[in-house]
Amino acid sequence: MLQEIYEQPQAILETVRQNVDADVIFPNALQPIENALFAFKKIIIAASGSSRHAGLAGEIIMEDLAGVAVDVEYSSEYCYRSTHAAADPIVVVITQSGETADTIMAQREALNRGAKTVAISNVPDSTISRESSAALHTRAGVEKAIPATKSFTAQLTLLYLLALFLARKRGRMTSEVTRAHLRDLFLIPEQLEGALDEWNKQAAACATKLQAARAFLYLGRGVHYAIAREGALKLKEISYVQAEGFPAGELRHGPNALVDDKLPIVALATRDETDPDSILRYQKTLGVLEYVKGRGAKPLAIAVEGDAEISRFASDVIFVPKAPELLLPILEVVPLQLFAYHFAVLNGADVDNPRNLVKAVTTE
Fold this sequence. Notes:
Blueprint: H1 2-6, H2 8-19, E1 20-21, E2 24-25, H3 34-39, E3 42-47, H4 49-66, E4 70-74, H5 75-78, E5 89-94, H6 101-112, E6 116-121, H7 127-131, E7 134-137, H8 150-169, H9 175-209, E8 215-220, H10 223-239, E9 242-247, E10 265-268, H11 276-293, E11 300-304, E12 316-320, H12 328-346
Helix pairs in contact: 2-8, 2-9, 4-8, 4-10, 8-9, 9-12, 10-12
C-alpha cells in the first residue's frame, strides 16, 4: 500500500499523457457516442466504494466546469431505481478492476434502458470496458494492495479530464482556458512528488498521537466532502475502527452529539485563494472547527500552504500545495491515505489484505 501511495505522481502523469494528445482530450475514445454527447440531458454516475467517492467529486467537477447535471448512484442500487424519466442520460460507470459485479450489472441495465454508457476502469480488456458504449482508462498500473490509492487519484484525474472535455464540447470553455486547466493538472504530479516524504512523516506522527482512538469523524464541504468520505473509508477498511465522512455543515444536525475530547475529527480545510466560493466554504469550515474545539475536540486539519489562520482552530495541520479548488482533492486525499496506513500499521493490521475484503467484488 505504501509503495502504491508513492506511485501516485506517475499514475496521474500517465493517465493525463495517455488521454491527452497535445491539447486534445480523448482524441478518439468517445467517438462511438458522438451523437449522444450532443443530445444528453444529464449524466448518471454508478459506482461502488472508493470509485463512488471519485464519482461524488466528479459530480461537482463536471457541474462546475461543464454545466452538466450529474447524479451519483450506488451501483448496487441503480438497477432497482426508477427509469431515467425522459432524462436521456449518459451513464458513466466507474470501477478499478472493470469486473465489479454490481457495476457491470448497472451498466447492463443502463444499456437495456437505451442509455449510452462510458466505462472508466484501470484494465482496458475488462468486462465493463468491452460491454460499454465507450471506454476511458486510467493508467495507474497494477494495484496489488486491496485499498484503492493510486487508482483513486487516477480516477479523479480522468473525471477532471472528462469535465474539461464536456466543457469544451458544450462551448462553455475556450481552447485557451482548457489549456490553462491542463497546465494546472500537469503540475499536480510534481507537487505530489515534492510533498510525499514530509506528509509521510507528519501522518505517522499524527497516527501515533491518535493510536488509541476507536472512532473518527471526517468533515469536508463541497468537492471536499467526497474526500472526507474516502478518508474515512480508508481508515475503516484497513484499521477496523469506525470512521464516518460528513459534510461539515451537517455536523450540528446530529453528529455533534458525538463530539468530545475522545473523538478525533479530521477536517478538510483547504482553500483556493482565487475562488470566492472556495474562500467562503473555508471560512464556514473554520467556524465548525471553532465549534468542535470549544467542546473539547482536537481537530486534525488538511490545509493549504501559507494558511496562517488554521493553527488557531486545529491541534495538528498537514499542509498541501496551493492548487485550484477542483484539483485540491487529488492533493488532499494523499495525506489521508498515509494517515490511514500508519494508524493501521500501529494497530497491527495487515493493510495490504484487510480481513473480509477482496480487490474486486465479483459477486452481488
